[in-house]
Please model this.
Amino acid sequence: MAEAVLQVENLSASYRKNTVLFDVNFVVQAGSLVGIVGPNGAGKSTLLKTILNLHPSLTGSVKFFGLPFNKVQKRIGYVPQRGSVDWDFPTNALDVVTMGLYGQIGWLKRPSRLHKQKAFEALEKLGMADYADRQISQLSGGQQQRVFLARALVQNADLYFMDEPLAGVDAATERAIMTLLKELKALGKTVMVVHHDLQTVEDYFDHVLLLNRTVIQYGKTKQIFTRENISRTYGGDLRWLREESLHVHNPIK
Amino acid sequence: MTYHAMWIIVTASLVGLSCGLIGVFLILRKMAMMADAISHTVLLGIVIAFIITRELSGTHMLIGAIFAGLLTAFLVQWLHSLDVQQDAAIGIVFTTMFAIGVILIATSVGNAHLDVQHALMGEITFIPWNKMSLPLIGEVPKATALLALVLFVVLFVLVAFYKEWKITSFDPALAASLGIPVLLMHYVFLCLVSITTVASFDAVGAIMVVAMLITPAASAYLWTDRLSIMLVLSGLFGVISAVAGYYIAAWVDTSISGSMAFATGLVFFISFLFSPKHGWIARYLRLHKTVKKTG
Amino acid sequence: MFTILLNSNTQWVLFSTMIFGIAAGTMGCLAYWKRQSLMSDALAHAALPGVVIAFLLLGEKNLFVMIIGASISALIGASFIQWIRSSTRISADTAMGMVLSIFFGLGIMLLTVVNRTSGGNQSGLDSFIFGQAASMVRSDVTTMLILALAVILIVFVAFKEWKIYLFDPEFAKGLGLSLKWMNGLYTTILVTTIVIGIQAVGVILIAALLIIPSVSARYWTQSFQRMIIISALFGGAAGALGTFISALGRGWPTGPFIVIVASALFFLSLFFGKEKGILVKYLQLKMQKRLVNIHTSKALRTKGVE
Model:
């Protein structure tokens, strides 16, 4: 049995006066590649933020590697939604990736050449070496997402949380990102990804967390990702589901 | 140039430099109107410091200003957390605190030492008269010494924590997940804004300090895509505006602080028109070209 | 103290600040839903050079001409903000802050020139900065009244058009409402409201009367129509009461007192308002926590059964 890297117990959180999450419980084993799936407003992003202490929780506890968050912060990487930052910020791609190392560099010190080198290698890995000096607003959506992924990569964390990394990216980027995620998994790292495209869940993730304000099901994709569970997650509207499968095509094929 | 004029220009340049540096992070953190609010509420801080201590010294003013700045931020945050739109919250807080400040001056403090007009418009011409002596340097106007001190603090804090300022401005969520104390840095930044504002008060007054804070930074934002260069340019533009403002004022024979605010506007206007990347002319030409190509 | 109220000039002034408060409260609701609360602050400051230039051209204080000057200058400020926003990457609040402070600086430059040339005579222009209702004469009051009533009328006559324009501009367009015209009309009445209040409240604080009453009104109702009425009431009360208090002391500025009354009303609403007031919210939160607990214990119980 693999080591439990993330234990969430009885977690609940609210936005304003609405309870967004309640009674969330699950345990993630090391080396899992987990897709977090659920309808809009199911609390997927809030779940990540609450786990990472970026959003206050009402109740419950979260343990990473059996320890509280602040003890193991360095082993955890977070990729926020692309839309959460201002891409007009005066900086270039390499610099954004270097930011992933700020936690390791420590206070009062500047990034050294070695750090820049590391950042550049991460960019290279995502096929972005040519864009290192580019101002970030001049990158396409997919390229921006790759920069974010490269930044997560340099953090060299053991547990990653990614908020919709595949939303609105081109097919090539989607491929590059998925290759990277599978590589991370092969290295024994754990990755949790908020995902919106039901069509690709089975191909991409070995575990799936069906979420609608609470955990509907969590487990191996093969066992859990059934029509019945999905319809429970999405409020039982199977007709909607069928429409979805008609309209959404797998961009990778 | 007379001795008197020299001190005015030195003082004004110090204002331009410190405001220019702080301003870069102000606009990148989307806090321009927060600066406007703080520049008004700092008045209340000064009045309260005066009521308590019955004197107007540099340190009391600085403490009063930090207090007022933090209170402003705290109240705005509080109202916002209660569902009030961000800019409505700013509007409520700063007008109320400013009104209280003005009323306190008009009623209890009296016109003896504090003058609202002075606080709003600044009176840089009087600065060289009020001197103190410093070891090694000799006689220095008090306001100038205070500004030099504030500039030193601002410069030190910005340079020492440069990468932390950068990451908390660009991506606070990532910064927090890396263990950088985002909230603490936010409040430290507000303190810097407050002390810069209050130190600039004597020279340019409450409202024109907003021009000095925001406009040079916004102009610099049009010229470069690099944060470090933006900081240098913004400081430079601040100094240029301050000096140009002095000469405009001398030429038209009018308010120096008003002219400095106006000069920041000129610098911005030039940047707005002629910047090669983001300027209006360059943009217009680019647009024209594509229209021609596609047309 | 009540002798002040008997003075006929004070009565007129009181009446006019009240009407102004009502107009500002009404207009403030539109600004609130257009999410442009601080825009009024920027425009008020931007009006200052216009006021002074009008005075320079005319050589005397005439409220009507000054209002025209103020409007032109505020409209120029508004278009600068729009221009900067649309053609650069500079954000809206930065653009507002710049226009606000640069125009104010220009206004102060001009004001200094005026004060110098008119030979130390303050020419009453300084009252435009903090507001001095007592300095208003009968003709000023008339001008104010007419314009304020015009603003109120425009809002109420086209009430349902404003409503769809603010809540769903795309839908409004679909209904054949010209957004360009509505935008133009909106800016015009916003600027009018601001400039008629400048003499009573002053450029620095005038935004308060556009912002505070509308936010306060939100704590009492969910309906747009009632919100406007309550906001107008709050604005009127703040205008009248503030002017009255400032008349009690010699040389007390009017603007700050009006603002204090407005924000006192705001804090009352914030604490005791029936929609989302702190008190009501506190009670709701308690309920929420109880609900969560019930959920959790239920969940635990069902698990126990399994």
